[in-house]
């Protein structure tokens, strides 16, 4: 991975994630917990349920200082600004929320209105993440998006005008996409970006419409070598324009990295609230996983009955914590703190396996204290992590 300026503050942080599960339409590639409702959603009911579950989570975590808040989905830009404001107020009632921390809301260009955006800003949102996904109408239709390029550019313009920070997503390695076409689209995107881009390779997830269509050979994707070339091109173009990768799929100007996502990758703690939300935080000295009921109405019923919608979870063993730390941290350009890995696992990484992976050009030391995956290692990261974790 090319050189990148690493933020001096590497503290993992404590994040709050709010999941709004509703969408206007389900994208064919999406396996997130999102649901389409053809009748208006009772937003007041869900706001009350979020408030209740946040209070229950506060009882479990104790007092904390929040470092970031993220409203994801689903399509949070279908929420009324009043709903967003009520949820953010509830977070502040339960934990310490310093002024100016990162508060991100995901938005789809098709659900963007200037008045609504200004309402979100007034409620406390200071960063928006737009699901643009492509900058040509043909591929937007293939991806099942409800917006066209003109609407996407309008949303980007509004977001730049109203919010201090902006990110937007693109999906690459689409059917028939050449390096030349992707390079041109990426150059165009960087021209509109302020400080952050999320660039994801199209993958086929089980249970999605694309999975069935792909299995039926209704479309093909670039092979592994072609996809690797597109990934390498992505690193080259973004770095040349001052938005290097700080994580496998995320690119930012130095200092503009997503604070919330860094909390995940640095293996920090976070509370997850809402249908299908996951959380990971230390409780009674052990890292605890919470998993909420996925069906929105069932989740709301549970919250109203017992104060939360958590239906699953576990307390992680030290070995499981160490494996997760390795898997998350090696996604980052800054890599992992070897001393922290030893503290979690009770052992160091195998010097023999490290030597082999270094010789193969898949990992590299960062001084004496850290280890990172190289660009080649990022492409096969699952295999690298599995080898190190043995």
TrEMBL record:
Membrane-crossing segments per the record: none
Task: Name a single GO biological process.
Answer: porphyrin-containing compound biosynthetic process
Radical SAM core domain span: 8-244
UniProt superkingdom = Bacteria
Q: Which Gene3D superfamilies match?
A: 3.30.750.200
Q: Where in the cell is it found?
A: Cytoplasm
Instruction: Spell out the SMART domains in the cross-references.
Output: Elp3
CDD domains hit by this protein: Radical_SAM
The record's GO CC annotations read: cytoplasm
Single GO term (MF): 4 iron, 4 sulfur cluster binding
Q: Which family does it belong to?
A: Belongs to the anaerobic coproporphyrinogen-III oxidase family. HemW subfamily.
Job description of the protein? Probably acts as a heme chaperone, transferring heme to an unknown acceptor. Binds one molecule of heme per monomer, possibly covalently. Binds 1 [4Fe-4S] cluster. The cluster is coordinated with 3 cysteines and an exchangeable S-adenosyl-L-methionine.
Question: What PANTHER family does the database record attribute to this sequence?
Answer: COPROPORPHYRINIGEN III OXIDASE, RADICAL S-ADENOSYL METHIONINE DOMAIN-CONTAINING PROTEIN 1, MITOCHONDRIAL
Q: Which NCBIfam families match?
A: hemN_rel
- What is this protein's name? Heme chaperone HemW
Organism listed in the record: Mesorhizobium plurifarium
Q: Which gene encodes it?
A: yggW
């Amino acid at each position: 991975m090319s050189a990148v300026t690493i933020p001096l503050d590497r503290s993992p942080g404590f994040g709050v994630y709010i999941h709004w599960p509703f969408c206007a339409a389900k994208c064919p590639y999406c396996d997130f917990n999102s649901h389409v409702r053809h009748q208006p959603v009772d937003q007041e009911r869900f706001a009350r349920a979020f408030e209740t579950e946040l209070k229950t989570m506060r009882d479990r975590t104790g007092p904390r200082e929040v470092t970031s808040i993220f409203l994801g989905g689903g399509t949070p830009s279908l929420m009324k600004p009043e709903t967003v404001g009520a949820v953010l107020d509830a977070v502040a009632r339960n934990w310490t929320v310093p002024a100016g921390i990162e508060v991100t809301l995901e938005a789809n260009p098709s659900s963007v209105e200037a008045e609504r955006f200004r309402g979100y800003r007034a409620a406390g949102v200071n960063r928006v993440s737009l699901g643009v996904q492509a900058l040509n109408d043909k591929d937007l239709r293939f991806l099942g998006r409800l917006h066209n390029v003109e609407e996407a550019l309008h949303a980007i313009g509004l977001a730049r005008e109203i919010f201090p920070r902006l990110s937007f997503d693109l999906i690459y390695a689409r059917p028939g996409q050449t390096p030349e076409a992707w390079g041109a689209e990426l150059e165009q995107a960087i021209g509109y970006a302020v400080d952050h881009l999320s660039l994801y390779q199209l993958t086929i997830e089980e249970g999605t419409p694309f999975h069935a269509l792909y299995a039926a050979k209704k479309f093909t994707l670039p092979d592994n070598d072609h996809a690797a070339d597109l990934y390498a091109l992505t690193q080259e173009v973004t770095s040349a324009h001052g938005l290097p990768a700080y994580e496998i799929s995320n690119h930012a100007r130095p200092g503009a990295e997503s604070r919330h996502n860094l909390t995940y990758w640095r293996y920090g703690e976070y509370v997850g609230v809402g249908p299908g939300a996951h959380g990971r935080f230390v409780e009674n000295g052990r890292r605890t996983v919470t998993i909420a009921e996925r069906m929105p109405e069932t989740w709301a019923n549970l919250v109203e009955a017992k104060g939360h919608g958590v239906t699953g979870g576990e307390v992680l063993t030290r070995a499981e914590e160490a494996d997760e730390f390795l898997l998350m941290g090696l996604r980052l350009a800054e890599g992992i703190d070897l001393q922290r890995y030893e503290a979690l696992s009770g052992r160091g990484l195998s010097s023999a396996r490290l030597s082999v992976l270094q010789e193969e050009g898949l990992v590299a030391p960062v001084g004496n204290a850290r280890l990172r995956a190289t660009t080649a290692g990022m492409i096969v990261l699952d295999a690298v992590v599995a080898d190190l974790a043995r």
